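Propose amino acids for all 757 sites.
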């Protein structure tokens, strides 16, 4: 719901449980007043004028030394104007000066959700119509509308630059989105040196910031920081959102737990370089900014041109992290993920990579297909090594032509053979990469990102294609299209196995080289959009060495993402735990793999591997022809259970019961008070009639403690039957007192099924 006061000075955005309020002040500055639990009235009482030393005053304020942008909470801060905090926009003018003075110019409202040209954005059942300009009377859109949009335009009268602040309001989902569009209506070019999509100011309060850090094969591990004076920042300069830092963070009050306290989830819907800065200033005010780009970003905005910054998704919870998680999960499933597979049951797949690596032929693939069919799987995926001169990591990328000699047939014939066995067929691509030993590189060495006169940086023996150039994107598109048009392919795994470096494009002049990384992401999105539009029934799974590009932007194009190259079940508990805060289970690619595990060497029971992998979109990374009859029987049972429980795990509410990261780490604590030897989670249907409880022991100690679980999300007045225990329990007992777990050794786990009776 969007409300604008009669004098058009007070602007209020409301969701079911939150209020977001801003105000146009007497000088035309847009001040941020409040974001949090529902309030009524005007929060301008939070603006307290005061003369602070060394805080400059706008010329308009005359002799009023109490008015300064250095301490006022702002909706969109700019460098210059005596705001010395971290700012959202830094602009360099044609005369070399840095500065911008943004004042309110206009606003307009629309029933429906805005869209962003060339960028992913959340959507609603009612896409935005023409903007509706406000009139003198009070304006209000009702909550019955699926979504509403607001555009507030700020203008710098000297340069002619206008900044559109875009807001999308999803009332029932408790989500507000933000994006920024910058338009040069002046006569001279300007240069954007730093652009944030979000500026969020808090006038008071003590906050913790939770980030999700990691490395390749250990991604998205939560780490909580108490914000104090100074600047805390994370980001990526790798060309992708990276394994190291995720573009999802949480801001929370000091008392926040899984079940209590205020917290905010902040998603940047973008897949390239990004920055996030949180600062407590001299007056103990907190500012958080977030957007695309890094220190090398510089965008020349000529007269008449527009730059659009990506969307940020904001969600608020007044009742702790569990509530925040489920609001985010529901929103991403409903309003970010698209396509034919959005609501369809995802197929259980067998990927041949850990079964064969590069060592396969048509006969071996046929054998895997036979095994997959007999075990009840739905999809066979052919991974790396099927194209060009590709017998290892050093060659072939960029030459997306089927190696019929290796397969012994065409791709169409192989797909048909798999389909004839009752299976779908999937194929691996790495479209953004190029090998120096490839026909494409020999013909077009300039297609690779590299700096003229310098040797390029190799990673995994490969370079990266310059997707900022349309002709490069077109070249890869035509190769992919030729294959997809001539074989019945239901699934594509889209991989990207290195970070970007040598950011120089031969197609751009010297004064536009700072645009390469963002233009690269726009090219990536354009190619993914072509795939989605041309093949609407194609399931695309994103991947970047596993979780190196796991973000809401990619989920707009790929409804699931390979969570991590690490398939060790015990490590995956931590990875999937961290991932669960910001991403729905439907988005998490998670598979059972062989033991000893190929990443860690650990041997984990087959049943436990199934318990962990079933908390995601499910599959297998192993050679089923090498399994025992007992293990094959377990696969059949795992697949049966996964499909029976699919609606519950992929559409139900998710609760973290025990953290695999334990206490003592600088992360979210284990509410049960245990060390890091128990991980447990729970799914509950929206109707509260069914639930799944899964738990895994990650260690074993002598004379072990009895472990208890307090369940969550059940119908407090109901009684539930636990199938595996063949016993009935009141929900109040299970949630408030808890239930003892059976004794389990190290790496053992299980799942309970609950049914309301």
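Proposal:
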């Amino acid at each position: 719901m969007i409300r604008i006061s009669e004098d058009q000075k007070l602007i209020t955005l409301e969701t079911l449980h939150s209020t977001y309020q801003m105000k146009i002040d007497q000088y035309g500055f847009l001040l941020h007043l409040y974001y949090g639990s529902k309030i009524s009235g005007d929060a301008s009482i939070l603006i307290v004028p005061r003369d602070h030393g060394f805080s400059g005053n706008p010329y308009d304020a005359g002799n009023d030394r109490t008015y300064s942008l250095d301490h006022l909470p702002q909706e969109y801060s700019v460098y210059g104007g005596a705001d010395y905090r971290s700012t959202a926009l830094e602009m360099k003018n044609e005369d070399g000066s840095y500065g911008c003075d943004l004042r309110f110019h206009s606003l307009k409202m629309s029933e429906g959700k805005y869209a962003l040209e060339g960028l992913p954005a959340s959507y609603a059942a009612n896409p935005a119509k023409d903007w509706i300009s406000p009139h003198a009377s009070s304006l209000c859109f009702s909550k019955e509308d699926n979504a509403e949009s607001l555009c507030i335009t700020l203008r710098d009268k000297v340069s002619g630059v206008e900044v559109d602040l875009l807001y999308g309001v999803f009332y029932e989902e408790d989500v507000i989105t933000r994006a920024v569009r910058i338009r040069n209506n002046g006569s001279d070019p300007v240069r954007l040196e730093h652009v944030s999509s979000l500026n969020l100011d808090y006038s008071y309060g003590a906050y913790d910031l939770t980030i999700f850090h990691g490395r390749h094969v250990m991604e998205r591990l939560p780490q909580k920081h108490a914000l104090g004076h100074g600047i805390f920042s994370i980001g990526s300069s790798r060309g992708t959102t990276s394994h190291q830092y995720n573009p999802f963070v949480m801001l929370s009050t000091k008392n926040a737990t899984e079940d209590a306290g205020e917290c905010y989830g902040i998603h940047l819907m973008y897949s390239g370089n990004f920055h996030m800065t949180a600062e407590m200033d001299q007056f103990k005010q907190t500012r958080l900014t977030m957007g695309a780009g890094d220190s090398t970003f510089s965008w020349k905005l000529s007269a008449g041109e527009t730059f659009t910054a990506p969307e940020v998704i904001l969600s608020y919870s007044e009742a702790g992290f569990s509530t925040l998680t489920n609001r985010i999960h529901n929103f991403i499933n409903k309003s970010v993920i698209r396509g034919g597979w959005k609501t369809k049951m995802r197929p259980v797949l067998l990927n041949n990579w850990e079964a064969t690596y590069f060592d396969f032929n048509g006969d071996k693939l046929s054998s895997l297909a036979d095994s997959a069919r007999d075990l009840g799987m739905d999809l066979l995926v052919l991974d790396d090594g099927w194209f060009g001169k590709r017998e290892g990591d050093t060659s072939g990328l960029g030459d997306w032509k089927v190696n019929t000699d290796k397969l012994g047939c065409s791709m169409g014939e192989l797909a048909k053979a798999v389909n004839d066995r009752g299976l779908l067929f999937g194929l691996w691509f790495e479209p953004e990469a190029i090998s120096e030993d490839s026909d494409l590189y020999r013909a077009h060495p300039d297609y690779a990102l590299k700096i003229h006169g310098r040797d390029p940086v190799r990673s995994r023996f490969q370079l990266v294609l310059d997707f900022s150039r349309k002709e490069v994107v077109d070249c890869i598109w035509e190769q992919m299209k030729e294959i997809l048009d001539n074989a019945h392919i239901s699934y594509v795994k889209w991989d990207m196995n290195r970070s970007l470096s040598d950011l120089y494009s031969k197609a751009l002049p010297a004064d536009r080289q700072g645009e390469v990384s963002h233009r690269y992401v726009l090219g990536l999105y354009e190619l993914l959009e072509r795939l989605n539009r041309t093949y609407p029934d194609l399931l695309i799974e994103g991947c970047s060495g596993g979780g190196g590009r796991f973000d809401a932007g990619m989920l707009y194009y790929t409804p699931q993402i390979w969570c991590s190259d690490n398939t060790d079940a015990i490590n995956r508990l931590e990875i999937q735990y961290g991932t669960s805060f910001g991403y729905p289970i439907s988005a998490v690619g998670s598979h059972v793999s062989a033991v000893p595990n190929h990443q860690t060497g650990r041997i984990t029971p087959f049943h436990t591997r199934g318990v962990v992998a079933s908390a995601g979109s499910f599959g297998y990374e192993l050679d089923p022809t090498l399994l025992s009859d007992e293990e094959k029987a377990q696969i059949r049972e795992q697949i049966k259970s996964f499909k029976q429980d699919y609606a519950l795990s992929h559409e139900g509410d998710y609760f973290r019961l025990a953290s695999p990261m334990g206490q003592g780490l600088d992360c979210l604590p284990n509410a049960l008070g245990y060390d890091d030897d128990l991980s447990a989670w729970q799914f509950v249907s929206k109707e509260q009639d069914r639930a799944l409880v899964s738990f895994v022991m990650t260690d074993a100690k002598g004379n072990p403690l009895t472990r208890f679980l307090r369940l969550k999300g059940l119908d407090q007045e109901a009684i539930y039957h636990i199938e595996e225990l063949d016993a009935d329990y009141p929900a109040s007992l299970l949630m408030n007192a808890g239930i003892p777990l059976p004794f389990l050794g190290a790496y053992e786990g299980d799942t309970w099924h609950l049914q309301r009776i």
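Residues 451 and 504 are 5 Å apart (CA to CA). The mean pLDDT is 94.
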